[in-house]
């Protein structure tokens, strides 16, 4: 939810005055989908573990139960792949929205002909990149 993050932009008309701007974008849905799927996967794994350990004879006698378990597991694997791709796309969108050149281009102060704007530092995205690779 980048729109909740404020940042200060200098106002060239008054040397000491600044304007508060907000970033644009809401990229929380992919992360929420990924976390929700992880919670449901954990809960299903706990239910399956109880079923395997406590009701082993029921699982062995019923031929439809192992097939249903297999189908649910395949669905979770597919949705995990989709969620990981969505998380990666969300990260790419956040990186694009917070790129210093994009922020500078959006500032009205930097649109003048004799104005030179540059970012002090570029953000470190190493840990964010690692979160997708893991």
TrEMBL record:
Domain of life: Eukaryota
MARVEL domain sequence ranges: 1-134
A GO CC term assigned to this protein in UniProt: synaptic vesicle membrane
Keywords annotated in UniProt: Glycoprotein, Membrane, Transmembrane, Transmembrane helix
Main location: membrane
A Pfam family reported for this protein in Swiss-Prot or TrEMBL: MARVEL
Subcellular location field: Membrane
Membrane-spanning parts: 33-55, 67-87
Topology within the bilayer: Multi-pass membrane protein
Family classification: Belongs to the synaptophysin/synaptobrevin family.
Protein name in the entry: SYPL2 protein
Native source species: Pandion haliaetus
Gene from which the chain derives: Sypl2
């Amino acid at each position: 939810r980048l729109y909740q993050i404020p940042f200060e932009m200098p106002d060239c008309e008054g040397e000491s005055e600044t304007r508060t701007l907000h970033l644009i974008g809401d990229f929380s849905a992919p992360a929420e989908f990924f976390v929700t799927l992880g919670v449901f996967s954990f809960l299903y794994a706990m239910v399956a573990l109880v079923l395997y350990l406590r009701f082993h004879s029921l699982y062995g006698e019923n031929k439809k139960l192992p097939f249903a378990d297999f189908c649910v597991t395949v669905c979770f694997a597919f949705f995990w792949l989709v969620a990981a791709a969505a998380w990666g796309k969300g990260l790419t969108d956040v990186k694009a929205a917070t790129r210093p050149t994009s922020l500078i281009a959006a500032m009205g102060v930097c649109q003048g002909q004799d104005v030179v704007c540059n970012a002090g530092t570029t953000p470190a995205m190493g840990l964010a990149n690692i979160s997708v690779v893991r």
